[in-house]
Amino acid sequence: MPVQSESFDVAVVGGGAIGLACAWRASQRGARVVVIDSGEPGAWNVAAGMLAPVSEADFGERELLQLGLQSSMRYGAFCAELDDPGYSSISTLVVARDRDEAEELDRLLALQRELGLLVDRLRPSQARSCEPALAPTIRLALNVISDNAIDPRKLVAALRRAFTGEQRTGRVTGLTRQGDRVTGVTLEDGTIVADQVVIAAGVDVACLDIPEHARVPVRPVKGQVLRLRDPNGPGLVSRTIRGHGVYLVPRVDGRYVLGATMEERGWDTTPTVGGVYELLRDMSEIVPGILELEIEEIIAGLRPATPDNLPAIGRGALEGLVWATGHYRNGILLTPITAELVVDALAGESLPTYAVAADPRRFEGVLA
Predict the structure, then answer these.
(1) Burial of 71 (C-beta count, 10 Å sphere; 0-12/13-18/19+)
(2) Residues 6+ apart with CB under 8 A from 254
(3) Is the peptide bond between 133 and the residue preceding it cis, with omega within 30 degrees of 0?
(4) What's the CA gap between 314 and 50, in Å, rounded?
(5) Which letter does DSSP use for residue 293 in this model?
């Protein structure tokens, strides 16, 4: 028989990096918080952990860039409060393999400089001086010193240790309400009462029983990733290497993350030969030495994407409901700023100007 639990100030749905960070910050402000997680790793378990708002800056994504820059500025202090979150300052080298890609990089460089971002244009010889493992055929590179990286698996483990509230395993199915006010969440085996609910469940928000007018539409976007290991230890590359549609992120212990495909395949998370081949082919044209690395893991995950590819952060259409979802490619990057914005929303504060585009209420009345 379903059992109703005790009451909490805040119930956080989702125990990934974003959910745990929101819960941690809320508990630091004195709230009694419970995190409910399904127990199945989300997109964070697949993510490479690039903290790269500048090298990812693209045409038409200025609102996302502002959020990313705000979060990146906070990351050092955020990680300083945690025990071994896997944070490192390694910068990014964005590489062009041919003339078309070089022209695209020059256009991107012009945009970045227009926005006042610090990026250096490197000739091929300069790029290979920075990273000798680069192929001699590369045409152009951009050096982004302000980018960093983190190991998302270490980050989630550190947040679990830091959060002193309750962590429960269970599958949330929907919300409990009195009229237009949220009063808690329903689980497969009961309910949890809470004054406010934070939904940070990634793609699983699409499976929650929520009134259509109050829903944030999220779709899954598949990404395949390889985790590689150099038996000789670290040193193949010391920076994140980004090419067109592919990246290689080094860890300090000689491991590397190679990713990631972008596939509209619904809820499928099966790795494929084609996806693996494309990643290895594209990166081996930039760093040939990756073909000598050992494969430790081939994995696929689902990014939570909204129709406009911007996250949904802040108060929702129902009183007591706060969203922290739809982060698409940038969930790990946006973790610190999302947690900050969520705890402000829990306190009744409005979104700052740089985050207004992420207001979840832009989707009111939109069907998923």
Answers:
(1) buried
(2) 229, 230, 231, 232, 233, 234, 235
(3) no
(4) 24
(5) S
Work out whether the CA dihedral 201, 205, 211, 213 comes out positive or negative: positive
* Token reading at 52: 């790269």
Return the H-helix or E-strand segment holding 335: helix 335-346
Bridge partners of 258, per DSSP, are 226, 248
pLDDT in tens, 7-43: 999 999 999 999 999 999 999 999 999 999 999 999 9
Q: Is residue 234 within 8 Å of 252, Cβ to Cβ? A: yes
Q: Which residues contact 69 (CB under 8 A, 6 or more apart)?
A: 53, 54
Judge contact between 237 and 250, C-beta under 8 A. Answer: yes
CA atoms within 13 A on the CB side of 138: 33
Note the pLDDT tens digit of each residue in 89-145: 889 999 999 999 999 999 889 888 887 888 999 999 999 999 999 999 999 999 998
- The model's pTM is 0.95
